[in-house]
């Protein structure tokens, strides 16, 4: 097995894996993924995450999670990548998606990928990974997100999430 020269970012790794897997048909893709998971001793159930097995006989099922009555805090965001975060939060516009990317980079991205500020060049790879439509004028998305109150300027071309943007992503998305 060849060693990689540098550790790619999480996003680069996703892109590389997708590019490699697209060269194979669906059956081969499944075989490759299963083989890699076996080699890494990973167990993937239901395509997303491992869930504890239900007892087969004589055991008791774990109690269901308590229902929220409106006074408790909402559960923490459990998305581990930008695509699952987009699926969970369902942004309706490019400005909301930019706030989502800024939130992801600040709060959820793997350690080597985290940053407090976002630039226009950061948007395209994350929009693509999230499978969110690229806007016609990508360069206008961050200034429009600033006008909406989701981001603020840190330095020329760099924006950070405001409290309004944070609250939008953490508490108001998806809209009911």
Written account of the structure:
There is one protein chain. With 176 residues, this protein is mainly alpha-helical. It has 7 helices and 2 strands; from the N terminus they run ααααααββα. Strands 1-2 form a two-stranded antiparallel ribbon. Strand 1 and strand 2 (158-161) form a beta hairpin. Helix 3 (82-89) packs across helix 4 and helix 4 (94-108) packs across helix 7.
Features:
single chain; 176 residues; mainly alpha; Arc Repressor Mutant, subunit A; two-stranded antiparallel sheet; 43% helix; elongated
Structural class assignment = mainly alpha
Helix content: 40-55%
The largest β sheet comes out as: 2 strands, antiparallel
Described by the principal axes of the CA atoms, the overall outline is elongated
Strand content: 5-15%
Strand arrangement, largest sheet? 1-2
Number of helices: 7
Integer average pLDDT: 79
CATH superfamily of the domain at 82-172: Winged helix-like DNA-binding domain superfamily/Winged helix DNA-binding domain
Contiguous runs where pLDDT drops below 50 for at least 5 residues: 46-75
CATH class of the domain at 82-172: Mainly Alpha
């Amino acid at each position: 097995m060849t060693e990689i020269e540098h550790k790619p970012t999480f996003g680069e790794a996703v892109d590389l894996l997708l590019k490699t897997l697209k060269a194979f048909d669906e059956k081969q893709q499944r075989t490759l993924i299963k083989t890699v998971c076996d080699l890494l001793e990973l167990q993937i159930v239901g395509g997303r995450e491992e869930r504890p097995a239900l007892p087969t006989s004589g055991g008791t099922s774990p109690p269901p999670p308590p229902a929220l009555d409106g006074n408790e805090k909402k559960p923490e965001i459990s998305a581990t990548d930008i695509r699952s975060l987009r699926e969970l939060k369902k942004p309706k516009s490019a400005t909301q998606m930019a706030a989502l990317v800024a939130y992801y980079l600040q709060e959820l991205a793997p350690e080597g990928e985290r940053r407090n500020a976002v630039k226009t060049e950061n948007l395209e790879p994350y929009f693509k990974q999230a499978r969110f439509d690229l806007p016609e004028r990508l360069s206008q998305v961050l200034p429009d997100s600033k006008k909406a109150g989701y981001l603020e300027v840190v330095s020329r071309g760099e924006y950070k999430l405001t409290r309004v943007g944070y609250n939008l992503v953490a508490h108001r998305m998806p809209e009911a």
